[in-house]
Amino acid sequence: MTAAPGSVLTALCCAALAGGACTGREPETALKPTPPDMSALSAVYASPTGTFQRDSAQGPLDAARRALDQIATLRIDAALLDLVQDTAGAVANAGIEATDGDGYLETTRTCAGNGRLELTVGFSEQGIDAVAWGQAIACEYLIDGRSILLYGPSGAVAGDVRLSFGEVVAFDRVAWQPALLDLDTTAEVDGLPGPADLDFRVDPRAATLELRIPVDDGDVIVVSENERLSRVRARNGDFTL
């Protein structure tokens, strides 16, 4: 049984700025909210800071496999990316992309068991903004018969979630744009809690998933293809596994 979060869009509100229009509502004067800065994390994925040594590779590769297993168990990336894609579709269907103003959408989706996902997604007439952000709030769902519960660190109800597309994305290209996800959450799997403080980059076009793994002198990027580790990008070069 699969009952992933985000199966129902429960709330959609927007603010159209600088003279734009939004589903019949009057433009608001509130400023477009500032997204979190993901540039430092993005820079590490673009240019890894750590070195990779084959004679000491076991530790980093084991860490990458554990992270990959956790991502496959949670599958929260699909729910968040689907929410951004649906938001882009809502903007396009409302004709907002044809306005000359910026705006943002605050989207809420219920999770199948309980709780919700919330995201703030900015837009302009060019497309969806580079960064979307929000929270997983006591989000409970089932994946292949396993009970998943996402909440914040140290027992807080809400955990932070952030996504970076690296650039403004055309409304009809969100599903194909590589995305960097950063989670600061706790995950209970079948009642057993554990930290889910991790980041990773998914590329739908290349069918790859990249993991940032700390090493002694920085971070390397371990690449997974078809759920198997295939190569490592590091400061001292690229390595095939």
For the structure shown, list the relevant keywords.
241 residues, alpha+beta, 13-stranded antiparallel sheet, disordered N terminus
Topology of this structure?
Blueprint: E1 2-3, E2 8-16, H1 39-46, H2 58-74, H3 76-94, E3 103-110, E4 114-124, E5 127-143, E6 146-151, E7 158-164, E8 179-189, E9 192-203, E10 208-215, E11 218-225, E12 228-234, E13 237-240
Antiparallel strand pairs: 1-5, 2-3, 3-4, 4-5, 5-6, 5-7, 6-8, 7-8, 8-9, 9-10, 10-11, 11-12, 12-13
Description:
By secondary structure, this protein is α+β, with helices and mostly antiparallel strands. The protein has a domain at 2-7 and 57-203. Helices cover 18% and strands 46% of the residues. It is built from three helices and 13 strands, in the order ββαααβββββββββββ. It has helices at 39-46, 58-74, 76-94; strands spanning 2-3, 8-16, 103-110, 114-124, 127-143, 146-151, 158-164, 179-189, 192-203, 208-215, 218-225, 228-234, 237-240. Strands 1, 2, 3, 4, 5, 6, 7, 8, 9, 10, 11, 12 and 13 form a 13-stranded antiparallel sheet that branches. A hairpin with a 2-residue loop joins strand 10 (208-215) and strand 11. The model is unreliable at 1-29 (pLDDT under 50).
